[in-house]
Amino acid sequence: MGFLEDFGYWGLFVHAFADAVIFPVPAFFLQVSLSLLHPNQAIWFATVGYIACLLGTPVGYMLGRLLGNSVLQKWLKPSALTKAENLFKKNGEAAILIGAFTPIPFKVFTILSGALHFSLWKLMVYAALGRAVKFYAVGILFYVYGRAAENMVHSYLTYAMLGVAILLAVGIYLKRRIQERPKTEPQKGKELS
């Protein structure tokens, strides 16, 4: 990561792109390091990381489409793979949103989306929403508070993002439950005598 830090914006671009495809360390850590060194450029770092992550998302998805299914077939029985695919199709939005906020490398969600044939367009929409919040929350904190934001980011931001992710997941769950609720038949009018 120190190597990529030496390249500033380009290092963050490569890291954020690779985070959506294959790199095991989230780009969040490099963004924090660069923002700590140059707080007045923190919004630009957020923008570069965000764009690179969105560009890497379909690449990770395609990697999952091409190779992920064969890997999953080696690890899971066909019945378990079918269950996982159905579960991800049903709850994929919540998984992607939660993944966008958490320190889990984002490649897990892009590759899994491709391997389980989740909609690429839905993946892109939810990735765009979740990753914007994550990158720009860090960028804005460093831009406004300077180096003092480091303590806020390390002490509170991760918990705050997990809280937001949980609230979003609960909201999606409740919305789905309301939509799945059987509709009651309208009452029949009184018959004319």
Task: State mean pLDDT (0 to 100 scale).
Answer: 80
The assigned structural class equals mainly alpha
Number of E-type strands:
0
Helix-strand string: HHHHHHHH
Oligomer: single chain
Categorize the overall geometry: globular
Strand content: under 5%
Top keywords for this entry?
193 residues, mainly alpha, globular
Structure description:
This protein has 193 residues and is an all-alpha fold. Helix content is 78%, strand content 0%. It has 8 helices and no strands. It has helices at residues 2-5, 8-19, 28-37, 42-75, 78-101, 107-115, 120-145, 149-180. Helix 4 (42-75) packs antiparallel against helix 7 (120-145). The longest helix is centred in the first third of the chain and has 34 residues, at 42-75. The chain is globular and about 50 Å long. It starts with a helix and ends in a 13-residue tail after the last helix.
Strand and helix layout:
Elements: H1 2-5, H2 8-19, H3 28-37, H4 42-75, H5 78-101, H6 107-115, H7 120-145, H8 149-180
Quick recap:
With 193 residues, the protein is an all-alpha fold. Helix content is 78%, strand content 0%. The termini are far apart.
